[in-house]
Write a structure and sequence with these properties.
Largest sheet: 8 strands, mixed
CATH class of the largest domain: Alpha Beta
Structural class: alpha/beta
Helix content: 40-55%
Strand order of the largest sheet: 1-5-6-11-10-9-7-8
CATH topology of the largest domain: BirA Bifunctional Protein, domain 2
Number of domains: 2
Shape: elongated
Strand content: 15-25%
Order of helices and strands: HEEHEEHEEHEHHHHHHEEEHEHEHEHE
CATH superfamily of the largest domain: Bira Bifunctional Protein, Domain 2
Number of helices: 14
Number of strands: 14
């Protein structure tokens, strides 16, 4: 019998599980305040749903051995979009939904082959709004979620913004394989690859300038306007950033616009964003999202309602960041109910019930102890529990 978990899987200790639960509850309370209803998408879906019309590569999906082509969800957006366009199709738009659960992704294992990596997520999806108003609500909600998590400026949270329309503007002069080659180099921030391409001097210089064109949204948009003139996407981004900036400043979040920023999954067709914090060894992505109208359209939504946007927060990395800040789990001290040889387990159970009625966590020592000193030592060994000693 194997005594180690499978590659990519983890055994969480009680403290980690409790912190995860509290984080999920904090986020759930924020989502409910904003009018989002909870849904529970299945962990197992058909591959064509999980691949989101080709936006997610087959290699990123953990497949199941079955008669039907099934897999474990690598994210929850595609499943929720499917439900929104089928079982929830008659509900009023905008449709606001949130979900929390485990997602599974495959990666190359150190010893060769593939392993399945499981991660806990909690996030929201907003359907039926075409304009920038959807993104304004989502990023405002994200800032409210950040406030509930109490991520201090010590972790230097940064909100990275991109837009597929910005990348389209950059790539407009190019076509075919050259266009794909340039896109890949920009996303990888590969200056050497661009310098080595067979481009005229003006094309190469502009691409290199755009590679460095990241920073404060207003300044970046001014530079882009100088290159491309007035564009509708610039107007929307200015409005969006102006709305979110105040809340971001309050939470110590730095906003950065990058026209070459694109996510790993080609799920989004519009705004894309990530929330990044400084971890102990490297930056950590704790939230990601964007607009995915094409996915909603593929799921069969009516043309006038084929709009969707959302984001997800990664619970496990957030838990580790909080542990680095030494934030204690917010529960009252547990109680140990112990009894002597001169009383009984039944009396201890009655005392435990008394603590439970006060919503206190209380556990029992199921065997009688000889002295109170022995009970105090046991309470200390169990993590410094408060002792309730029963000895008539």
């Amino acid at each position: 019998m194997a005594l180690q978990p499978a590659a990519g899987a983890r055994d969480l200790n009680p403290r980690q599980v409790e912190t995860n639960r509290q984080l999920r509850e904090r986020l759930a309370s924020v989502f409910r305040l904003w009018g989002y209803d909870e849904v529970s998408p299945p962990q197992v879906e058909r591959l064509d749903t999980l691949m989101a019309g080709g936006a997610i590569a087959s290699r990123d999906i953990a497949r199941l051995v079955s008669d039907d082509p099934l897999g474990l969800r690598p994210e929850m957006t595609a499943s929720i979009a499917r439900a929104a366009c089928t079982r929830l199709a008659t509900r009023h738009r905008p449709l606001r939904l949130w979900a929390s659960g485990t997602v599974f992704r495959t990666r190359a294992a150190d010893e060769g082959g593939q392993s399945i990596e499981e991660n806990l997520q909690s996030g929201v999806e907003l359907f039926g709004i075409e304009g920038v108003e959807a993104e304004m609500e989502l990023l405002s909600l994200l800032m409210a979620a950040v406030e509930s998590l109490d991520l201090t400026e010590l972790k230097k949270p940064r909100l990275l913004l991109g837009h597929t329309a910005l990348m389209d503007l950059i790539l407009k002069p190019f076509n075919g394989s050259r266009r794909d080659e340039i896109r890949a180099a920009l996303i990888r921030f590969d200056r050497l690859a661009i310098e080595a391409m067979e481009l005229n001097d003006s094309e190469r210089d502009r691409l290199l300038q755009l590679l460095d064109c990241r920073g404060r949204p207003g300044e970046v948009l001014d530079k882009l306007s100088a290159f491309y003139g007035d564009q509708p996407v610039f107007v929307d981004l200015r409005r969006l950033c102006s709305k979110v900036e105040g809340a971001a400043v309050e939470q110590g979040v730095i906003m950065q616009l990058d026209p070459t920023f694109q996510p790993r999954f080609e799920l989004y067709t519009g705004l894309v964003f990530q929330l990044v914090c400084d971890g102990r060894a490297a930056p950590v992505v704790i939230a990601r999202g964007g607009r995915y109208d094409d996915l909603v359209r593929r799921c069969g939504a009516a043309e006038n309602e084929a709009f969707g946007a959302g984001f997800s927060l990664a619970i496990d990395p957030i838990r580790e960041l909080i542990n680095e800040l030494n934030i204690a789990v917010e529960t009252q001290a547990d109680v140990l109910v112990a009894f002597s040889n001169r009383t009984s387990l039944e009396s201890a159970m009655a005392r435990q019930r008394h603590w439970h009625q006060q919503s206190r966590v209380a556990v029992m020592e199921l065997r009688p102890l000889n002295t109170k000193t022995e009970a105090e030592r046991l309470a200390k060994e169990m993590g410094g529990l408060e002792l309730d000693w029963i000895d008539p």
